[in-house]
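Consider the record:
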Amino acid sequence: MSGKNIFYAQSGGVTAVINASACGVIETARRNRKFGKVLAGRNGIIGALREELIDTSKESVQAIKGLRYTPSGAFGSCRYKLSAVENNRREYERLIEVFRAHEIGYFFYNGGGDSQDTANKVAEFSRAADYPITCIGIPKTVDNDLPLTDCCPGFGSVAKYVAVSTLEAGLDVASMAESSTKVFVLEVMGRHAGWIAAAAGLAGDKRGEPPHVILFPEIAFDQERFLARVKTCVDRYGSCVIVASEGAQYADGRFLADAGSMDAFGHTQLGGVAPTLVDMIRTAHGYKCHWSVADYLQRAARHIASATDVEQAYAVGKAAVEFAAEGRNAVMPIIRRGKGKHYRWSIDEAPLSRVANVERKMPRSYISADGFGITGKAREYLAPLIRGEDYPTFKNGVPVYSRLKNRLVRKKLPAFDIEG
């Protein structure tokens, strides 16, 4: 006799490997008779509120296996944050109603800091509502800014993409610099933490190799120092490659690229740091410049995913199910780095209450003294995370990615309108 069902959902910005975590959850749950079905929320927590639950038991073994090699969110994600219970108790009551109606006893939420906050809130409310739900957070964020874990699934693959792109673009610019483009700016993700920008530093390790300038959110932007550095690089090396975090900001906290609006999580909407920098450079020096925004490309690039990242993403999904089977609650699997010269890692756990809404920024010791590059210590931390290739199957020159049926279970409750 199978036990209660699992609710699994994906939240926030998706990654090249979040589906590998989903694969880990579903494959592990299917092997354990303690669990019933895995019901996935269509578009994250919104799927639970609207009672739009995808029956993953309708998917073939092969389709689920294929998720390990498929980017984006197979079940749809969302940027929707539950309010505090006292502000919108009805949402929490609705979740319990849906869980009770579909015999759900486990809640797995795959996302970043805001998502871990949601999982923690659901755990607390379910106890108060006398319908205890086992809540496990599953880490995911390209920003690599969750606390307690050594790294975050999703980051290693973005880091690899950015390092490779910086290397290749740097070669292109160098070949054209004599009579054409002298400066190239690549804008990457990273609102308050510069981990992704730092990964670009892996593209070169010798003096004069790109990137010549990295801009971190953790280091206050000084326009005069920046422009002087660009000129020095062009004079000395013939060209200058710049990698800028979208969250680069002035000393007073203003973002270089504040778009003047907020996203669904209440964060400042960013966009356009690369063209902003190019305008500065052209005005000051007159160089021909090109810029690019990696945007979704960096987090969707499963074709060049880090093998380490894929393995870790699957492992945290698998561990979530194992933790639930062992009766653990309100925790998140974390990655623990082993000591010693050779890179090793294992899975541990952290309480959701210590993870929720905490941002881990780049240590100052990882950023060079001048603020424009990474240190050996950062390189030692970053290098293993981009190691290894785990290519998907290709057909006719393009990857073969899993396409799910995503069949919904029959609704049992009245419709529910969500806010926002």
About this structure: The domain at 155-301+366-386 is CATH 3.40.50.460 (Rossmann fold).
